[in-house]
Design a protein that fits this description.
The chain is an alpha/beta fold. The protein folds into four domains: about 1-170 and about 185-260 and about 480-510, Uridine Diphospho-n-acetylenolpyruvylglucosamine Reductase, domain 3, CATH 3.30.465.10; about 265-470, Vanillyl-alcohol Oxidase, Chain A, domain 3, CATH 3.40.462; about 525-615, no CATH class; about 825-935, Rossmann fold, CATH 3.40.50. Helix 8 packs across helix 11, helix 22 (about 555-570) runs antiparallel to helix 23 and helix 34 (about 815-820) crosses helix 36. The longest helix has 22 residues, at about 635-655.
């Protein structure tokens, strides 16, 4: 019986993905390994997990859990059944005034911190991927980060946990009698954990080894320290789960102790002439109580020169130099100031390239941290084609940091890793190194194998350090588990695995392996596909921002499937597989991409997958459709009249037959026409073109050009809005003392975005030429500021305005219009109580989030936003043709709205976003311009 047929007996059909497009697009994670799963399943609750465990035990089919897929050592891929938990599992409960937080497994770490923000608290772990990785991955890998150290990692901040064991038992350690329940329900299991505890405690040498291993950061193997740190088997079990990498059970809920999020922070960058002097300072900084201390060797710092944020002269650091990025945090500002002064007394000016300074300005602090976090994209951007970027981490005693760095540098030279960089969390002795390797040849694989052998011998032998500090054992270090721990400790770990998972159904090949070469097998090739996406390192940072993530594909999976197709062609694989993927590619890859560009905001390499989708759409356009679009652009005024007529017909049919019936009929036509016909579920609100008269005052020198978007000209406002957006613009200008004129031939103009996003390049070029002619005539009067009432249109115009006009012209988004023109020149009469602000993708892409909040806070007493950049999924007019994209995309916005409670005012700065959110949330969103106009009355 086929695997899908078997799985359909325990899960719903739509929870099971066995088609090639899903299997191959899930074959890669953030690591440098690749495995093709037999099936991808998406469980929704504990019963689904229990059913999967029963199925796996009965059929001998292993399971591998995939959270966000940001693991760097191949923990979230498999050639068996991949269990994707990204759908659902998103409950957050805050308890004891923020001192505890209970999280389901697919909550993003950064979202937990946003929920805790009002309590001035946060979770302890702070990995670099915190805005992408799920809490289950954070706990399962015992992830730490820049400030976390060992004190605040998952192991030491764990309060309680709900676990589903491979035998189907559910253990909830939050229950007051959890230990007795475990003893009653699993007596053999209970007694064996106690036996192991006594065995370890009675072995002095082994106990000392465990203590030493965990005195520094260590995620190699299981948390054997739990047998020494805890008395009850239930506590031992829950802490064994921390760092177990999905090999012992499923964490269906976790409660963590939170820690304070200090109010005052100061950050400074110290550049040293000698690496040794930088490392010598670190123990002294630890004595002061430094919260973060990031080291960058010469190669790492030199690499940052490619960043546009790099503020120093090139080649400022000598070959033996190093940088320390330091931060102090406290609830007491005077304590931070005191720490900085102590640093001045212990750092010799002669050791530095130039005098250092600490800053407490958040903008300046963020620039320094952006520079540090830019190391990965800078490195990824320079790697050679077809090479793989490998990111590993080790840990040594802080006192031996300089020696370890020098020894690693020697290894890089020995194995000709010329582009190697070394950086890390210096206060913990935790070093990361990046190397790029060509695994397409046996020579490259052998070179990496020998390098790893030497590196393992160095860290284990000379330094008695950790082979893995915070990334988990994974496939890359599994062959070296016994080298790191010795035979006895490794045997105990194997006994734990057999005790809890006797049939080895959970994540085989991760942590334990009998293959000494598994770390150089199943290496993922990275064939060139297109310059836009070739720099992708498949980290998955983009996925949480993607509006289609729960419907079809994420940017990473879109890139994955293109690479897999290229590999299938190169390797001459089954043409039926290729045919199947291509058949499904249109909907999953092209048709459901919102092309909003948010992926580039999250991407460490700034890849905008939407730009590639636009190119694909352009290539798919026939001469007939291109000519129709060109005719539409050349006769835009007539096109809008046709839209108006279409809207009237739709409204008439809705009034006669009812909207429910019209939705049903239009949906059937939509399916039959391959989504070329819109799904009409309510009034399209299309009216004749509307513009108020120009605001012309010869006594006012502050003249603006107002370019009203075609959507605000032709779409009526929502049910609670009697005043249209162009009228709001006129009112705001009057209050601020500005006059405005429209561009010449305004009814025939559009920013061109509808044509560009659909791949109609000729039509877009025609519209751009028309705009160029219009503005060249308009700006003769001296105006050089253009205001636009719709954020996506403003973003589009900004991209080409100076090229077509040939002089500096400022294009202001509605946010910039309010911040720079209106608010400084008006008086706010009253603030509204609360405001929920949706920020359009175009605003996020320009990095204007802080401006949005600044404007919102001037208009409202409380301002709420979604926890991350959240596309509404309407994507211009795509929401009419793929309404399920809008519904799926808005789920995170609806979740945020539920968390923040009821608000009277919901707004955005894009009319199409407002339309989409009105449909999916049931609330009425209006323009922020309307809110501002009302507050200024």
């Amino acid at each position: 019986m086929p695997l899908k047929s078997k799985l359909c007996k325990i899960l719903k059909a739509d929870q099971i993905k066995c088609d090639p497009i899903h299997r191959y697009s899930f074959a890669r994670d953030a690591s440098f390994y690749r495995l093709i799963p037999e099936a991808v399943v998406q469980p929704e609750n504990n019963k689904d997990i229990q059913a999967l465990f029963k199925f796996a035990n009965q059929n001998g089919t292993p399971l591998t859990f995939r959270a966000a897929g940001t693991s760097l050592s191949g923990q979230s891929i498999t050639n068996h059944i991949l269990v994707d938990i990204s759908h659902g599992w998103k409950s957050i409960q805050i308890k004891n005034n923020g001192e505890h937080i209970t999280l389901q497994p697919s909550i993003i770490g950064g979202h937990a911190n946003i929920a805790l923000k009002k309590y001035d608290r946060k979770i302890g772990p702070d990995p670099a991927s915190i805005n992408s990785c799920f809490i289950s991955g954070i706990v399962a890998n015992n992830a730490s980060g820049m400030c976390c150290g060992t004190l605040h990692n998952s192991y030491n901040t764990l309060h309680s946990m709900r676990i589903i064991l491979p035998n189907g038992s559910i253990i909830n350690s939050a229950h007051p009698n959890a230990d007795e329940i475990l003893k009653t329900n699993e007596p053999t299991f209970y007694s064996r954990l106690l036996d192991l505890k006594h065995r370890i405690q009675n072995n002095y040498k082994l106990s000392q080894t465990i203590r030493k291993k965990f005195s520094i950061k260590n995620t190699m193997g299981y948390s054997l320290n739990s047998f020494l740190d805890f008395e009850s088997p239930v506590d031992i079990l829950t802490h064994l789960m921390v760092g177990s990498e999905g090999t012992l059970g499923f964490i269906s809920e976790v409660t963590l102790h939170t820690i304070p999020n200090p109010k005052f922070k100061a950050t400074g960058l110290l550049l040293f002439k000698e690496l040794t002097n930088a490392c010598t300072l670190i123990p002294q900084l630890n004595d002061i109580g430094i919260d973060a201390c990031e080291i960058m060797d010469h190669s790492a710092f030199q690499l940052l020169q490619t960043s546009p944020e790099f503020p120093y002269k090139k080649n400022i650091m000598p070959p033996d130099g190093a940088a320390l990025l330091c931060e102090f945090q406290s609830e007491d500002k005077s304590h931070v100031d005191k720490c900085i002064e102590i640093v001045r007394t212990i750092v010799s000016v002669d050791d530095l390239i130039f005098p250092f300074a600490f800053t407490q300005n958040n903008h300046e602090r963020n620039k320094l941290w952006t520079l540090r976090k830019g190391m990965l994209p800078c490195h990824a951007g320079i790697r050679k084609s077809r090479t793989t970027l490998i990111i590993e981490d080790i840990c040594v005693k802080v006192e031996r940091l300089a020696s370890a760095i020098n020894d690693l540098h020697s290894l890089f030279r020995k194995y000709n890793y010329q582009d190697a960089i070394l950086f890390g969390h210096a206060k913990d002795g935790n070093l990361h190194f990046n190397i790029s390797s060509d695994f397409s040849t046996s020579k490259g694989i052998d070179n990496y194998r020998l390098f790893m052998d030497d590196m393992v011998h160095l860290i284990n032998g000379k330094y008695n350090g950790s082979l893995k500090a915070e990334h988990g054992t994974g496939r890359n270090m599994a062959p070296f588990l016994e080298d790191a721990w010795g035979t006895e400790a490794t045997q105990i770990m194997r006994e734990i695995k057999y005790l809890i998972d006797p049939n080895n159904i959970l994540n085989p090949g991760v942590i334990f392996t009998d293959d000494p070469d598994c770390h150089v097998k199943n290496i993922k090739p990275l064939p060139p596909v297109h310059p836009i996406i070739d720099p992708c390192i498949e980290c998955g940072f983009c996925e949480s921002y993607c509006p289609s993530k729960s419907l079809t594909m994420t940017p990473r999976r879109r890139i994955n499937i293109l690479r897999e197709l290229e590999l299938l062609k190169e390797q001459g694989e089954d043409p039926l597989v290729i045919s199947s993927i291509k058949k499904d590619l249109s909907f999953h890859f092209k048709d459901t991409c919102a092309t909003d560009g948010l992926c580039s905001v999250a991407c460490p390499v700034n890849i905008n997958t939407g730009e590639l989708i636009k190119l694909v759409r352009k290539q798919k356009r026939s001469d007939i459709t291109n000519n129709i679009a060109l005719f539409s652009a050349n006769h835009f005024q007539q096109t809008t009249r046709l839209m108006q007529l279409t809207g009237k017909i739709a409204d008439g049919l809705g009034g006669i037959f009812g909207w429910k019936y019209l939705k049903s009929i239009s949906k059937k036509i939509n399916n039959c026409t391959n989504r070329k016909f819109p799904v009409i579920s309510q009034s399209m609100r299309i009216s004749s073109s509307y513009l108020p008269t120009e605001e012309i005052n010869p006594n006012i020198k502050n003249n603006l050009i107002y370019f009203p978007s075609c959507v605000t000209r032709h779409l009526q406002p929502g049910s609670n809005q009697s005043v249209r957006v162009p009228d709001r613009i006129k009112s705001l200008c009057q209050k601020a003392g500005y006059s405005f004129t429209y561009p010449k031939n305004m009814p025939s103009l559009c920013c061109g975005m509808p044509y560009a996003s659909k791949g109609f390049q000729m039509a877009f070029n025609a519209m751009v030429n028309r705009i160029s002619d219009s503005f060249k005539k308009t700006i003769q009067n001296g105006e050089n500021i253009i205001i636009i009432d719709n954020s996506p249109c403003a973003f589009t115009l900004k991209k080409y305005i100076n090229q077509i006009i040939g002089k500096d012209i400022a294009v202001l988004d509605p946010i910039e219009f309010l911040e720079e023109i209106i608010l400084p020149n008006t008086e706010i009469k009253h603030k509204i109580d609360s405001l929920f602000l949706h920020t359009p993708c175009s605003v996020e892409s320009q990095g204007m989030t802080s401006k949005v909040l600044s404007v919102g806070e001037q208009l409202a007493k409380k301002v709420y936003t979604p926890p991350e950049p959240a596309c509404c999924g309407f994507a211009g007019d795509l929401g009419f043709y793929v309404p399920e994209l809008t519904e799926s995309a808005s789920s995170s916005i609806k979740t945020a709205m539920a968390i923040y409670g009821s608000n009277k005012n919901y707004c955005s700065t894009s009319l199409t976003c407002e339309m989409g959110l009105n449909r999916t949330t049931g609330e009425v969103f209006q323009s922020l311009l309307s809110i501002a106009d009302d507050c200024l009355k």
